[in-house]
Amino acid sequence: MNLILQxxxxxxxxxxALQVGMVSLALVAVIAAAAYAVGHEITISIFFLVPVALAxxxxxxxxxxxxxxxxxxxxxxxxxxWSEHPFSVHFFPYWNxxxxxxxxxxxxxxxxxLKTHLIIERNLSRTDDLTGVLNGRGFTGLAEKMFELSxxxxxxxxxAYIDLDNFKQVNDGFGHSEGDKVLKVIGEIFLRSVRRTDIxxxxxxxxxxxxxxxxxxxxxxxxxxxxxxxxxxxxxQHKWPVGFSIGxxxxxxxxxxxxxxxxxxxxxxxxxxxSGKNGTLxxxxxxxxxxxxxS
Length: 295
Hints:
This protein has ten helices and six strands. It has a six-stranded mixed sheet with strand order 2-3-1-4-5-6, with helices on both faces. It starts with 7 loop residues before the first helix and ends with a strand. α7 (167-174) crosses α8 (176-193). It has two domains: 3-126, no CATH class; 136-294, Alpha-Beta Plaits, CATH 3.30.70. By secondary structure, it is an alpha+beta fold. β5 and β6 form a beta hairpin.
């Protein structure tokens, strides 16, 4: 989407703290000039809370504290410039300064805590409760952005579509609680085996997908060979009769959309199922002749 059409919230949320600080500093300068120009009859100094809020929300709490101190100090200097009559008690200006600073700091703290809680809630809404990986909605949102970036920069992206073999036997033979344990162990292995930039999601009951950004087929083979070995070891350790059919597609040219990418990976995974299960098929996009790697 063109940046001109994006809402201001999205634009600011993507800016580094330095740029947010510069925007907040410009606002402080504008408010200070306006407050001094209108004089003491109309107070607009309370609007210093705007750059404080901006710096705290889109930057961080420390940046918000800096603008609290800066804004309150400028407010104090503006009040001093207006004063035609001395205060009856000499420390009253400092009292006003302390009260304003305290209120600004409280506002910055509350905003920081609110942002933290919203981030936690947003992450929880995107996370599968059982496995700890992304749920379908969370995976879709991040994966779509990843494919957009690969298209923009012309870099390879690989998608691995993973389906568990014989998972129904575990549920039927040992109960759904044991099946949940299988999924939980698999989720833990996924999370500790992939890179920080990789995206792992649970798309269905026993179906998972991994997006590997800036990864071609050779890089994907190395990563998935190590992942398969760790998964197989865990299944043997718990004596679970579970295998993994994996379809891996490396996109040298990005697909039209994420749904197309998943369809290609899903179709490749079914080829593994049809040819004996518990194996991996690799393919490139545009399509070429797939190569198989089994257990």
